[in-house]
Amino acid sequence: MQSANELINTLKQEKGVYDSVLKIAEDKTDIIIKGKVDELDKMLKQEQELVLQMAKLEDARERLVAKIFSELGITDKDMTISTLVEAMKSPYSSGLKECQSLLLDTIGRLKVKNDLNSKLIKNSLEYINFSINLIASVDSGSNNYSGSGQVSDAKKRNFFDMKL
Fold this sequence. Notes:
Elements: H1 2-34, H2 37-72, H3 81-87, H4 92-136
Helix pairs in contact: 1-2, 1-4, 3-4
């Protein structure tokens, strides 16, 4: 079945793109930790290109799945690879199942890595905000005497006019 072979090839291509995104996510972890913003920006641009490739492959996959369902005479609204695996015969069903398993594994690992990167970025932003607040509220430490000779309340010295 020609459409099944095309679907298997499309799934393999999708997995390759997801592998590339996973590699970028792993590299981003080190870059986030080291605070290299310029390199992070470059990686995000690479990642955007890969996301566009993913979208194209996803469209192709959906068209192929719909075509195979039509060829098999299945009118199920739930057109998934799992449903297709059950409906097809070997070797196509085993090939699809293997592709599905590998793809889901890669997506799972990518999710874990993206969650870690998200937490690292959040922690970095919290640290930056803490530092800005700390600097913005530094006590000048000088003694301010009032006209009566009594020490007046210390005035806070702000290095920043506004907080971004």
